[in-house]
Amino acid sequence: MKKIIISPDSFKGTMSSIEVSGIIEQGIKNIFPEIQVIKIPIADGGEGTVDAFLTAIGGEKIRVKVKGPLFQEIEAFYGILPDKQTVVIERAAASGLTLVEDKKNPLLTTTYGTGQLILDALDKGCTNIIVGLGGSATNDGGVGMAAALGAKFLDEGNKEIYLNGGGLEKLERIDISGIDKRIKNCTIVAACDVDNSLFGTSGAAYIFAPQKGADERMVKILDENLKNFAGIVGRDLGVDVQNIPGAGAAGGLGAGLVAFTGAKIQPGIKIVLDIVKYDEIISNADLIITGEGKIDGQSLRGKVPVGIAEKASKYDIPVIAIVGAVGDEAQKVYERGITSIFTTNLQPIPFEEAKIYCKENLLKTTESVMRLIKGIHK
């Protein structure tokens, strides 16, 4: 064995994909000191996406003053990749759940700051824009984002509505005549790992708003507001946002990006692997190690380990998934190219206790895997 690729997702709530990659590398080197190791940490649209790209292929992190999810002044960031034309934006950096702390309320939060990040990237001459949709605090359909780019959202008195989930109730008309003309010359892709519709029982409000602070009453209001929004988008812009898979991602920002910027919604893992030229990197690898916090049936829906395995299968490269926990229907990932699963959960203890030892256990698990491989290849 000469070359191992490390490509994990983050272990949610414990370690970033960059941290996971470093620990796995250490575990490999402790057993195989001379082996070539290439780290390609993966983030599929949520927090850590910018850093994962910059770590994998280089580039520059740009810091910008924007409006946070509650319209407060914050410092956010995005990444410009080495080609100077491609920019990676985490909506979580400007409109994320961690920025509202104990003030969660999707009736009040906005994506305006995400639009400001896009605007800053346009000012720097970028023409390829990737927007990661994970980590959302909002449920505004992307009207805040679009307003930052020049769109207007008006009530029956021709006054601008509040640019948040609650404001959509008053929406009567959309005017995109003032939207930044540079958008037309851009390729914009929304990185998303869900396929939820905009409204309805599988939509943005019912599925995601409770974790953003919505109670049962608020969920119903938010859902009705998104339904109103969708109807007016259809009438004024001629775009049927309800039937676009992923339109409900990030509180409807998926729908807003499609409607107001012409964006395409794609699985985050596909975008990342294409940008870093993953096929070239792995073509002569002997083994790939991937992983995530929990592997289960949901992993089949565009999650990192399965995306990695499907790439690897073209080259008959074995793929080991090192994970924090194994859930229901995890066995189905074997049908998609995963060779074997190893869990870092070395004792039957609750997550809150297990996360204290997560780094230590990840290292131990990696070393155990490497010892097995070393024994087989004697």
UniProtKB/TrEMBL annotation:
Taxonomic superkingdom: Bacteria
Listed Pfam families: Gly_kinase
Keyword Kinase in record: yes
Family: Belongs to the glycerate kinase type-1 family.
Species this chain originates from: Clostridium aestuarii
Name by which UniProt lists this protein: Glycerate kinase
Membrane-spanning parts: none
Entry-linked Gene3D superfamilies: Glycerate kinase, domain 1, Glycerate kinase, domain 2
Gene Ontology molecular function terms on file: kinase activity
Cited InterPro entries: Glyc_kinase_flavodox-like_fold, Glycerate_kinase, Glycerate_kinase_RE-like, Glycerate_kinase_sf
UniProt KW Transferase keyword: yes
Keywords, comma-separated and alphabetical: Kinase, Transferase
